[in-house]
Amino acid sequence: MRTLPVSHEPPPADAAPGVLVGVDGSDGSLWALERALAEAQAHAVPLRVLAVVNPTPAGVSAGLEDVAQDSVGRLLAGMADVVQRGVVSASARVPDPGTPMLHVIAGDPIALLLRASARQHTLVLGTRGNGGFSRLLLGSVASALTFHALCPVLLVPGPHRA
Questions:
Q1: What predicted TM-score, i.e. pTM, was given to this entire model?
Q2: Which of 6, 35, 120, 161 could form a disulfide with 151 if both were Cys (CB 3.0 to 4.6 A apart)?
Q3: Domains within the chain, CATH numbers bracketed
């Protein structure tokens, strides 16, 4: 498997416009990743893959800061692996996919994707992520970004179920 470099910083604000795709490891986000590869290729712009891990340790008890930080590090490493595998898998189905830039960071997915959407050509998202309400048609991240993103948004539905 080809390993791509992973940044633990958000995409730079002054970078040339490109296609930004939000990935959380869910099937929906991996379908969005494949579509984003094709969109970036079709528009001849760079692809930025942004995976945001929300560790949500609201309050860490005194003396457990190291444990909490280690947990965040493991979450980021695990997500980086998921993103790498997703890119390899999606790239196999898109002719000449180019080389995406991978960003895996900790924080609030809505806030960070919103900020990263500034100056982008397109933001690509799956309609549903890893949230717990599978009967919802649109997940909370996709819903928020559909209305507040700073660029056009492309929502990619998953395959239809019988």
A1: 0.85
A2: 120
A3: 6-156 (3.40.50.620)
